[in-house]
Amino acid sequence: MALEDIVRRALAREVRAVSRLISIIEDRLEGFERAYAEIYPHTGRAHIIGITGPPGSGKSTLVDKLAMEYRKRGLTVGVVAVDPTSPFSGGALLGDRLRMQRHVLDDGVFIRSMGTRGRLGGLSRATSGAVDVLDAAGYDVVLIETVGVGQSEVEIASLADTVVLIQVPGLGDDIQVIKAGIMEIGDLFVVNKKDRPGVERVMAEIRTALELSEMSCVEGSWVPPILLTMAETGEGVAEVVDACGEHLKHLGEEGLAERRLRRARAETMEIASQRIWQGLSERPGASEEAQRLAEAVAARKADPYSAAAALYRLLVQ
Amino acid sequence: MALEDIVRRALAREVRAVSRLISIIEDRLEGFERAYAEIYPHTGRAHIIGITGPPGSGKSTLVDKLAMEYRKRGLTVGVVAVDPTSPFSGGALLGDRLRMQRHVLDDGVFIRSMGTRGRLGGLSRATSGAVDVLDAAGYDVVLIETVGVGQSEVEIASLADTVVLIQVPGLGDDIQVIKAGIMEIGDLFVVNKKDRPGVERVMAEIRTALELSEMSCVEGSWVPPILLTMAETGEGVAEVVDACGEHLKHLGEEGLAERRLRRARAETMEIASQRIWQGLSERPGASEEAQRLAEAVAARKADPYSAAAALYRLLVQ
């Protein structure tokens, strides 16, 4: 199929074309920049929701049930799973994988898992590309599932309109400690597996952390709700969908524009950065010089800062 | 204290100067590049060990006990903790924090926790700086503790000579699924909390994943051992220290040089990349142009690739 056809069909939400286009952008195949330029004007319509939490918190099950709930409400859903332990990524038990199969029969749900290594331009670039394709294809809601520890949570916050942080009782003491930095990216808190002992303690910890964080002081600001779910049975899932909708409404046009400007800036900078390296590698003798500098650093004959300065001069002069 | 004094005293392993120098490099304070250039020739002597595993796997306790074991053997130890949930980072229960206090009385152990957000130049740059300071200061062993999911494990693999991957029985099904990509960075596997049910299953999964990975086919290549520990009681910790030593021996001069060249290359590129952005921001009108481009992308009037191309032209032409 010609690239123009793939783009046209993806924009018409033909599942195979959507899938192919994501691969083209992910793998940076011939013409991917042109394809990106063609779909990009069609983006900006989906509600992009990031869902993150520690391993074992039931993220995938919750994502599965959220997709079902959105379908019940007549909306189409794209899922991007960025989690080496996610059943979407093929890394799970057979039962989980079978559970996901039912969506195969429903073309209102599209599921894509992203490999976590070896992608050119990094994981966040590939994820962002998949989200844009799904958005342009007309999925009403795009759910991004990432395993949430540290950096990945910060990355998802830069992609999503609404960030759902999942916690779970009884995963051990050190997992329950919620740092202010991570709390601040959560627009919604979900305590999943609410039948487990310790649920009150987790809720109290989230509440305390929220009270300590600065945002709770500003009048009229969004107060992140804490919701209880049993993703396995679907209990509480409708309330999560409601709360995501309320958050989007609270953001309003201005709040949404602000979040999307932040994302646009980060993406542009990241791509420009890749282009700079590409430019460097195309200069005659540059990769040999880069190798020589790395060897000098490894041998402690140069420090990384002076080597970097030499590389920089090579590029811009 | 003047910078020269701080450097001189840090190289003599004076605890307060070491701490100060790490902050200077971490926060990129005045003169930090000069300080880096001065300490860098003294690096390359420490055995750098990365320790990573999921939240709740007992990383911090194991790191604590490893430090004690190295001290027993007459070696000095630097610890860099990069984990928002680590007790070293102040994010844990009082009991854990008190447990770490005993090292305060021993100047053969230095503990530093790295914040995980808001650092200029990113987390890995700050971590790398701290590791280099501890190495130059003459700590025999530098332990880097990171919470291990996806990207952070890849990052630690680029920093460390030896990578220890911790697993633990019974953290829930999806956490036990070990993907080949992550397996390949492990030089040692530790199954901690070995008294828990499911220990045989975790070991079998690691063994299977190791057999599936390519490295096991090459003759003479390192076969990652799987060790059982109870970090709480210290059981098995001496064996982990032994195995780390054996791995270093197996690497030999050539293997070590190869790992360190890889690290040098990655660091030099990363610093050069920062410098490029700095260079861009210093050009008259450049940050206004960058902002204008981001706004166009957010408004879907430009796509991120063409905006990045415009930014790139601004820099190199």
If you had to describe this structure to a student in words, what would you say it looks like?
2 copies of one chain form a homodimer. By secondary structure, chain A is of the alpha/beta class. Chain A folds into 3 domains: 1-42, no CATH class; 44-251, P-loop containing nucleotide triphosphate hydrolases (Rossmann fold, 3-Layer(aba) Sandwich), CATH 3.40.50.300; 283-316. Helix content of chain A is 52%, strand content 12%. The first copy, chain A, has a 7-stranded parallel sheet with strand order 3-2-4-1-5-6-7, with helices on both faces. In chain A, helix 8 (180-183) links the parallel strand 5 (162-167) and strand 6 (188-191). Chain A is globular and about 60 Å long. The model of chain A is unreliable at 85-98, 117-121 and 173-177 (pLDDT under 50). At the A-B interface, helix 3, helix 7, helix 10, helix 11 and helix 12 of A face helix 3, helix 7, helix 10, helix 11 and helix 12 of B.
Record the SSE blueprint:
Two copies of one chain form a homodimer.
Chain A: H1 3-11, H2 15-26, H3 32-39, E1 47-53, H4 59-72, E2 77-82, H5 94-101, E3 109-113, H6 122-137, E4 141-147, H7 151-159, E5 162-167, H8 180-183, E6 188-191, H9 199-212, E7 226-228, H10 237-282, H11 286-298, H12 304-316
Parallel strand pairs in A: 1-4, 1-5, 2-3, 2-4, 5-6, 6-7
Helix pairs in contact in A: 1-2, 2-6, 4-10, 11-12
